[in-house]
Amino acid sequence: MINGTIYKGIGGFYYVMVDGMLYECKARGKFKNINMTPTVGDFVQINIVDEAEKTGVIETILPRKSILLRPNVSNVDQAIIVFALKNPEPNMMLLDKMILLAENANLDVVLCFNKCDIDDEGRFDTLRSIYNNAGYDILRTSPKTGEGIVSLKAILNNKISVFSGPSGVGKSSLLNAIENGFKLQTGDLSHKIKRGKHTTRHSELLPLKSGGTVVDTPGFTSLSLHEIPLDRLSSLFPEFESISAACQFDNCKHLSEPNCAVKAAVEAGEIHASRYEAYQYIYHEIETLGRKYKKW
Ligand SMILES: Nc1nc2c(ncn2[C@@H]2O[C@H](COP(=O)(O)OP(=O)(O)OP(=O)(O)O)[C@@H](O)[C@H]2O)c(=O)[nH]1
Ligand SMILES: [Zn+2]
């Protein structure tokens, strides 16, 4: 058996990449019996049926290191969260929510602040200070001037990445700067109805010539915060994690409890106020969503 990765699935066939070559594979019936569906991104073991025709059979699906639901892709390593420094103006709450969803899906997070060529208000420095303090990798990019493209390439190399970020921030332009002709599919496409039939568009993995693999659809386009358990929320803010050990209560929510080390760190400027405000806001939002979902 040889190891490969499923790059796409169409009508019961799976296209498995092995050393730069795609094999068209069927999956063994046993997967159905154990209720397992091969998924794009899965690391699999295949037996080759015909080397000349490049066909094979998937025999084993290896344990998944992460599972994204929208788009449905396994083993994504990192989310490249792209926000423009201007046009459109960065919405910090949206940024914190996208970071949280990526954290909740166990992805590494890279923040890519784009359109730095038009950052005439110096927003990058403010954002860098907030998110460096939170421990995130940060890029300053512009497909227009080429700034940061080499660094972005290096970050994508050897990894499976999903791009996220609001419309118009330059996700496609960034990928195009790395590889001419590369275009991210827009999220709506998966809901289009073709020829009277419901055709769900499955995501694909696309290999970059410069190294690395990118999911062809943006991630976290719908912000499904109710998936995040409330008791996990503060652990998804990396800069709260170590400090919260010093809170008086083990189960401190860092809201109105006495002797809360997180709140003290906010007052001392060690945790950025905007991150704590996002935490408070999102906490209450998930709480309200939770009540609504229970009623259904
Ligand atoms: N000034 C400037 N404009 C940019 C830059 N990057 C992208 N743009 C422009 O921003 C607009 C949106 O870029 P896209 O790459 O389509 O953005 P997107 O994030 O893929 O957008 P969606 O497909 O809607 O999700 C285009 O008009 C780009 O030319 C940049 O670095 N500087
Ligand atoms: Zn606390």
From TrEMBL:
InterPro entries from the UniProt entry: G_CP_dom (IPR030378), NA-bd_OB-fold (IPR012340), P-loop_NTPase (IPR027417), Ribosome_biogen_GTPase_RsgA (IPR004881), RsgA_GTPase_dom (IPR010914), RsgA_N (IPR031944)
Matches recorded under PROSITE patterns: ENGC_GTPASE, G_CP
Cofactor note as given: Binds 1 zinc ion per subunit.
EC annotation from Swiss-Prot or TrEMBL: 3.6.1.-
Obligatory cofactor(s): Zn(2+)
Domain EngC GTPase: 74-221
Cellular localisation: Cytoplasm
Domain CP-type G: 65-223
Pfam family name, one: RsgA_GTPase
Binding annotation for Zn(2+): 247, 252, 254, 260
Function: One of several proteins that assist in the late maturation steps of the functional core of the 30S ribosomal subunit. Helps release RbfA from mature subunits. May play a role in the assembly of ribosomal proteins into the subunit. Circularly permuted GTPase that catalyzes slow GTP hydrolysis, GTPase activity is stimulated by the 30S ribosomal subunit.
Family from the record: Belongs to the TRAFAC class YlqF/YawG GTPase family. RsgA subfamily.
Subunit and partners: Monomer. Associates with 30S ribosomal subunit, binds 16S rRNA.
Protein name, entry field: Small ribosomal subunit biogenesis GTPase RsgA
Gene encoding the protein: rsgA
